[in-house]
Amino acid sequence: MPENSVICLKNIHKSFGDLKVLKGIDLQAHEHDVISIIGSSGSGKSTFLRCINLLETPTEGEIWITGEKLKLARNKKGDLDASDPRQLAAMRARVGFVFQNFNLWPHKTLLENIIEGPTQVLGKSKDEAIAYAEQLLRRVGLEERKDFYPSQISGGQQQRVAITRTLAMDPQLILFDEPTSALDPELVGEVLGVMRDLAGEGRTMLIVTHEMQFAREVSNKVMFLHQGQVEEFGHPDQVFGNPTSERCREFISSVY
Ligand code: ADP
Ligand code: MG
Q1: Which residues, 6+ apart, have CB-to-CB distance to 196 below 8 Å?
Q2: Is 81 helix (H, G, I), strand (E, B) or coil?
Q3: Residue 45 and residue 63: Cα distance in Å, rounded?
Q4: Which atom of ligand 1 is nearest to the CA of 228?
Q5: What residue's CA is closest to ligand 1, atom 27?
Q6: Model confidence over 55-108: pLDDT tens digits?
Q7: Where is the ABC transporter domain positioned along the sequence (predicted)?
Q8: Which residue lies with its CA nearest to atom 24 of ligand 1?
């Protein structure tokens, strides 16, 4: 039932012109679910994740967030777009998104990056937002860097700040799109460590990742996408250890 899930996606389709990228995807996440989304490059993982908060407009489908159905109407391009901008803004405030390339504001300090959403979107006072940001930065070991600019810290640190920025909004769901793919190998572990802690706290997360060992250990469900369709879905032990789909088996043996 969409009413008691954190997120419920029904029959999501997305085409770019004649190219059908998503061909009817269903996914439901309940509180504390950590769902990894795997699949080869071009299978539609990013497009699917971006459809959830309408960074991409789906061609077909329903989106329910914390039991509330997102109001959609067909736009001129033939896609579904939010028909109630206030509802969309409220829903986006509940769904964090962590990008491959961090997407921090380069001209703002780390602290300014983190308090932007809480002050501008949630209407928190600056003092309150700063106190919370400092507390969250302490947890990821970056409090002393709060007045640095993104270019002055490593990619791993930037991604930890990007995750902190998301946490500052107290999201009910966090979407990660290959959060470690842009990092040098020696910086991957520190970001996965933070994500592991979030999973341990019971955060609800959807994670597009190529880190198979991490996905197997941290998630409770895994979705394998192939050419815009769910080809395999289940517990990580089953998907990684004994997949029913031959394509899933091939994919996993090619990346492990
Ligand atoms: P993945 O994240 O699994 O690598 P994507 O969702 O990025 O895959 O892309 C799936 C397909 O959609 C690819 O063929 C890609 O070229 C195409 N695609 C993605 N975004 C766009 C876009 N904005 N315009 C046209 N085609 C796109
Ligand atoms: Mg992608």
Answers
A1: 214, 217, 218
A2: strand
A3: 16
A4: 10
A5: 16
A6: 999 999 999 999 999 999 999 999 999 999 999 999 999 999 999 999 999 999
A7: 7-252
A8: 16
Do β-strands 34-38 and 205-208 pair in parallel, antiparallel, or remain unpaired?
parallel
Question: Which domains can be identified in the chain, with CATH numbers?
Answer: 2-255 (3.40.50.300)
Kindly give the number of the ligand 1 atom that is closest to the alpha carbon of 47.
6
Residue 256: CB atoms within 10 Å: 9
Q: How far is the CA of 134 from the centre of ligand 1 (A)?
A: 37
Per-residue pLDDT reduced to its tens digit, 147-188: 999 999 999 999 999 999 999 999 999 999 999 999 999 999
Among 3-7, 168-172, 187-191, 207-211, where is mean pLDDT lowest? Answer: 3-7
Q: Which residues does a 6 A CB cutoff place in the pocket of ligand 1?
A: 16, 19, 21, 39, 41-47
Residue 147 CA to ligand 1 centre (angstroms): 36
From the CA of 44, give the closest atom in ligand 1. 6
Q: Quick check: 173 and 6 in contact, CB under 8 A?
A: yes
pTM of the entire predicted model: 0.97
